[in-house]
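Suppose you are handed a protein chain with no further information: no name, no annotation, nothing but its sequence. What can you learn? This example shows the usual starting point.
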Amino acid sequence: MTTPLGIIEGFYGQPWSWQNRADLVSFLAPHGYGFYIYAPKADPFLRRRWQEPHPQEMAAGLKAFAAHCRQLGVRFGIGLSPYELYHHFDDDARIALKAKLAFFDDIGVQDLAILFDDMRGDTPDLADRQIEIMHWIQAESGAERLMVCPSYYSDDPVLDRVFGERPAGYLEKLGAALNADIDIFWTGEEVCSREISPGHLRKVETLLHRKPLLWDNYPVNDGQRMSQHLHLRGFTGRPAAIGNHLSGHAINPALQPTLTCIPALTLTDSYLQGDDYCYAASFRRAAESVLGSDLAALVEADIMALQDVGLDQLENREERLRRHYTESQHTGAREIMAWLDGDYRITDEIVQTQ
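A reasonable first move is to predict its three-dimensional structure. Written in structure tokens, the prediction is:
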């Protein structure tokens, strides 16, 4: 397997603990996951309050986690969302950004992602402004690898409805003028793509003048609708051949860190096995590896209720699920119980304010 695999912690809602992150990296590193980008929507010091320094305790946690990643041979990255910086990239903004970049260098950031998603983008010179910012950051940052998420990171028209119509030629201009060694994130034909094909990626590679860095929105389950479902099944619609057209493949994980490891393992299988990959068999092996055989068998039996039905539609199924998982002390079972209790619910208010 030659396609670099990684995690981009980019979901809305309650962020993971440092122990959650450390455990996940420790588990997935031997299975081909070689980079981790810390970018939770709930970290305000990477988003709406990005000009402010991280509090001392958070900074210490980041530095310790970066060291943990390096010890495992996993590249550590951070995703910064400088809120609508392209509207006011003045001297004050440059001073604040330079201080933030110095902090990233101090804690050992190897991969720096600048994320312009989830912001209004209906500005005619949007590409020019973002290119200026990225080239300025590249000159100031000590990160080994730089990447950017465009304001329009998919063909999906939902982005135009929510964030304003994309400027004409935005992606063409961004791809042509951005330095070739800066990676560009792409989610596919949709924000949450059901399938990602080599044919589509070839077109994107031509458009962006480089192989895209895939931001895969599976198994993420944030949002008011998706948080009612646990995304556990093996990856589908990601044939191994797409690796020839990617600079890397980053998955946006589910809200449940232990359960996330199940589909994550199946993606490794998909790349390694190619045409021989069978997603159901891969799920079964992955679930046993993460949960143990007995708990994995329960999850497989309950997969339709957990992934397809939706929390508010469980009705009499909920009692059965609680019987199955209430006695287990495994972290995976605890996450299922917390989901049943509504602890992972995401509201529109959370999405709009993080």
